[in-house]
Amino acid sequence: MTADVHVKAVEHRFNSFTALHRVDLQIAAGEFIVLLGPSGCGKTTLLSIIGGFLTPSEGQVLIGGRDMTHVAPKDRPTTTMFQDYALFPHMSLRDNVAFGLRMRGMAKAARNAKALEMLEMVGLADKAARRPHELSGGQRQRVALARALAVEPDVLLLDEPLGALDLKLRRQMQEELKAIQRRVGTTFVHVTHDQEEA
């Protein structure tokens, strides 16, 4: 599944500080877009508004033509992948990937099958029973990506997901992200301060 994103005249203020001023942005369904800029320029604020973690002071966010401006994150057709990956250390990789499906009420057999399918997509199906601490940084990043895509979001929001990786691994993961995005067709919105990564 995929959807377009339309940010219309969005402004966001933190008390007297204006973080975003009249931002207009259109992202086509299935597009992979990168928001590039230095720290403090508002890119993560914009990503948080698209994901519903912040409500803009003014303006609208439409996803798939529907107004999502005041819709809670759990009710949006989006998933966010954060820089720290937020994997549960006490759960297996399979259970980490299946977590969002479990929260949506999917039956255990179906969610385990979907989790294995997602782990296969990122090349980690053979490690499904392992725990996150048994993996490298790049492998943990792939598990987080599999978990984010398992719930089949229309839009995947990536908040500097490669920031914690070394240069060689970052380049490898850039290629993997592009290949996976082409395969699944989901709209990707990727935030980074790294020009090379963009």
Automatic annotation (TrEMBL):
InterPro entries recorded: AAA+_ATPase, ABC_SmlMolc_Importer, ABC_transporter-like_ATP-bd, ABC_transporter-like_CS, P-loop_NTPase
A GO term for molecular function: ATP binding
ABC transporter domain: residues covered: 5-198
Top-rank lineage group of the source organism: Bacteria
SMART domains: AAA
Claim: DNA-binding is one of the keywords in the record: no
Record keywords: ATP-binding, Nucleotide-binding, Transport
GO biological process, alphabetically ordered: quaternary ammonium group transport
Name of the protein in question: Spermidine/putrescine ABC transporter ATP-binding protein
Species annotation: Alloyangia mangrovi
Lineage: Bacteria, Pseudomonadati, Pseudomonadota, Alphaproteobacteria, Rhodobacterales
